[in-house]
Amino acid sequence: MVGKLIDKVAIVTGASSGIGEATALALASVGATVVIAARRSDRLQDLKARITGTGGKVLSITADVSDEAQVEALVNQTHAKFGRVDILINNAGVMLLSLIDGADTEDWRRMINLNVLGLMYATHKVLPLMKAQGAGHIVNISSVAGRVANAGSGVYNASKWAVGAFSEVLRKEVYQNNIRVTIIEPGLVATELPQHITDSSAKEQAKNFYGSVKNLESEDIANAIVYAVTQPSHVNVNEILIRPTEQE
Ligand code: NDP
After folding, report:
1. CA-proximal residue: ligand 1, atom 9 (nearest)
2. Is 156 a catalytic residue?
3. Mean pLDDT over residues 206-235, rounded?
4. Which of 140, 27, 33 is closest to 83 using CA atoms?
5. Cβ(25)–Cβ(225) under 8 Å?
6. Atom 8 in ligand 1: which residue has the minimum CA distance?
7. Cα 30 to middle of ligand 1, angstroms
8. What's phi and psi for 201, nearest 5 deg?
9. What is the ipTM of this complex?
10. Cα(193) to centroid of ligand 1, in Å?
11. Taking the domains of the chain in order of start, what are their residue ranges?
């Protein structure tokens, strides 16, 4: 395997489907050793076989990223096996849309615990390693929903706004350690994300919204991530906002 990321080790959370899966494949295709994490181990095993089949190096770790101890184990296992963590793709997320009034507050906990705290835990665990290495790159997957708030998306918007604020503070705190921070803000991407919405009316609305435009593909976002992490070390791509052409 040859490529721009040869000798680099990248952790991708939420790699069992959608954007995370496409990103793991794309990073492996440019030479990175990828550590793929999510809860569905059968899907991770399938992805692992595909990456290995093309000559890529991969470690699969089943982990619930909303659980701090499991995130710590993910980072520790990566470091124990490969001796470094160069890139962290904080991608795992859920979008459990509903109106604020009458919402199932368990949906709120799932979004905050994963989209916000999970991303923060993973960042917290890799920072000492990246500082010791003298370099690193953290890519946080936010959303257009991290920039534009809409009725029916209150807590998902809040979770992605939190990702934006956290990422900007992180950048200011670690740029002198040669650690780069990128935030990726996709519009509508054809993945299983909206299928997990528990509120039936919000799920129907999301289905119609996704169906109203030609969606981005997960590979479109993976390409943007590969662009960001393969720039020369003096280039810090801070933010990429990427919508389908047909999306308002
Ligand atoms: P998917 O539902 O296809 O992927 C979500 C991933 O997160 C899956 O791999 C899932 O794996 C994982 N995940 C969910 N819960 C957990 C958990 N508790 N612990 C570990 N992993 C978990 O959706 P996308 O690929 O679309 O979403 C990826 C990211 O992109 C999310 O952060 C989302 O907010 C963001 N995004 C998506 C957009 C879209 O239109 N699709 C638009 C803008 C942003 P498993 O269930 O196996 O754990």
Report:
1. 14
2. yes
3. 98
4. 33
5. no
6. 14
7. 23
8. -70, -40
9. 0.99
10. 6
11. 9-242
